[in-house]
Amino acid sequence: MTELKITAKKGTGFYIRAAATFLRGTDEKPPVPSVILSGTGSATTTVVETAHAIQKQGLAKITRVETGYPTTGGQSTARLAVTLTADWPFPDPSSYCNFDEVRVESYALDLEINFEKGILQGSIELELLAIQESSRLVLDTRSLSISRVTADGASASFQLGSAGRKSEALGEALEIELPKKLSPGEKAKVHIEYATAPDAVAIQILSPEQTQGKKHPYLFTQCQAIHARCLMPCQDTPGVKSKYTAKMTAPSPLTVLMSAVPEGEPKEVDGKRCFYFTQKVPIPSYLLAIACGNLASRRLGPRSHVWSEPEAVEACAFEFSNTEKFMSIGEKLFGEYVWGIYDLLVLPPSFPYGGMENPCLTFVTPTLLAGDRSLADVVAHEITHSWFGNLCTNRSWECFWLNEGFTKFGETRIMGNMNGADYEQLLLRNDCLKLSEDVALFGPEHEFTKLCPQLKGVDPDDAFSGIPYMKGELMLRHLEKIVGQERFEAYLRAHVKRFSGGCLDENDFKNFFLEHFSSEPAVKEVDWQKWFYGRGMPEMPALHSTLAEKVELLFSSLKGGYDGAAEDIKDWFPKQTELLLDRLVDYAREQAAAGKAVEVQGRLNAWNEAFGFDSTKNAEIRFRWLMLALACNDPSRVDAAIAMAQEVGRMKFTRPLYRELIKEPSRLPKAKTAFEAAKGSYHPITAKMVAQDFAKAEAK
Ligand SMILES: CC/C=C\C/C=C\C[C@@H](O)/C=C/C=C/C=C\[C@@H](O)CCCC(=O)O
Ligand SMILES: [Zn+2]
């Protein structure tokens, strides 16, 4: 055991560097039992914060912190026991970069959007901090054209994809030789001139005809999970966080927005507009976001605006008017909102997800515009990422559930605060159904049904499903039941404080939870292994919702031959109708498997007459209704299902619609033709994933 003495007067940054240098300098390379860092200072908290900061930066795992002994002359002291684990420094299977040696602390983008060429072109300047002695910088890239690299002003040589670091899933590593060897704690600047590729997976460019206004082109990005490397050379791992600034140039009169705070008004130069942004809170690369188009905004609250094409902006302002309420509940539950502004951008229908939690500027799909605010729970979800994901970040995509499970929990709790505990239980019921559907889709023995799957050699897009969301939420509900709601909510606030600004994996979470509840014997019974690495369905909670019971009653009546009437559901929440349709889809599938699809099919027109499903404005209901029609082979609604799949690029809807369409072999050619026709209007991620679904179905 080696001991390092540090004195607590220079602030946390000093300690991180001192500790990093020390850890790297020691002979005790992993696996080692532990290294003791001890500090004496007027503020013990500085030493404790240091411990946490060291861990957040992935330098080591803190196994024990002892403070306040012995107290001499009014000065408190602290000792930190630090374990370098065998897998130190926490490899990320989805990145090639050498973030264990050198870290990007901040970067400055200077990019011009060229709609004619379909590219972004310009430069990035990276500010590096050496963690250990190193003379190279390895960054992630994918299909970037790199024209020039300089390091601290001197030309630097570089190679793309060298040493076999090139693959379909991960892109091509960019290795830059630094002109001088950096010592731990030393800083350097690397400047890279580059352009993106016209087929970059992170970027979708819409022609004017593809927009609502039909006059101007539109560009938007989606970086999660590992697409930031198509936009810029970067350390594309959620384990590294950097601040950024950006200067973005676009043709007049278009507006550029980013996942950052805008600085001042745009400057007009030669028919172009320059926009400036600053993101002062360090963020992982996957949270970089850019949008550019003919955009208008409306104020939603003291710190929020909603943006969209001008044609839809009033409808958007109505739909998301509860934003500030959601934020206030989030702050009460999880702590201060640190990002300054919270704006929403409503994207064109090809946006591949319901929402993306880009800091300061959540991106959302227009399929949330139901006209009655009933789908704004996605906004509550994205707001919750302001704490879980954006502040406390999964260390790699293998523990994505730490972003999504916590956020799903928070979303459901916020919606419960809005609409009552019974409603919260209804949402959980819906989530349990979604979980069992997603587990069934992969098969219960599949690696991706684990809360923490292994992703070596895997494209994270292939592993994505509702499982980390719902299974993660259920695990947290299980823990909440053990310790009680009030204590669990206090835990969540402590968790945010503890991991804020850093990253964590499932063991960091487990250790902190056990430390927090060290005097609670019941938590010792938790089967962490099973929750984290067990396949298939987890233990289901007992749920009590009168709202869900009403759904079950109507479901039974409909199954029993009752045709339904509008008043049956007139006081319902739309989430109850979603549950009813989910239950009917399952029923239709069972009947179809028993050769009785036609019996369900014969009931659809009556149900439509009663409940008006064919004309619903709610995309979740429309989707489920069409899935029901497809499940019972209703030929009269195939065109409507195809129309939804073609119009909406949100994968939650598009992929299941195509998958259900092609389950029936006679519908395959029509579905294929529809996909080929719509493919060009989809986001590259959606086009890639739907093409894979077709390939799988055709291979069967
Ligand atoms: C265990 C899972 C492994 C890796 C997943 C990591 C990233 C997945 C990647 O494909 C990106 C996901 C982006 C998600 C963005 C928003 C979602 O919350 C939307 C959910 C679906 C929807 O509402 O449309
Ligand atoms: Zn999410």
UniProtKB/TrEMBL annotation:
SMART domains: Leuk-A4-hydro_C (SM01263). SUPFAM superfamilies: AlbA-like, ARM repeat, Leukotriene A4 hydrolase N-terminal domain, Metalloproteases ('zincins'), catalytic domain. CDD domains: M1_LTA4H. Residues 546-694 form the Peptidase M1 leukotriene A4 hydrolase/aminopeptidase C-terminal domain. Its cofactor is Zn(2+). It is found in: Cytoplasm. It holds the Pfam family Alba. Keywords: Cytoplasm, Hydrolase, Metal-binding, Metalloprotease, Protease, RNA-binding, Zinc. InterPro entries: Alba-like_dom_sf, Aminopeptidase_N-like_N, Aminopeptidase_N-like_N_sf, ARM-type_fold, DNA/RNA-bd_Alba-like, LTA4H_cat, M1_LTA-4_hydro/amino_C_sf, M1_LTA4H. One of its GO terms (molecular function) is aminopeptidase activity. Its main location: cytoplasm. Belongs to the peptidase M1 family. This is Peptidase M1 leukotriene A4 hydrolase/aminopeptidase C-terminal domain-containing protein. It comes from Durusdinium trenchii.
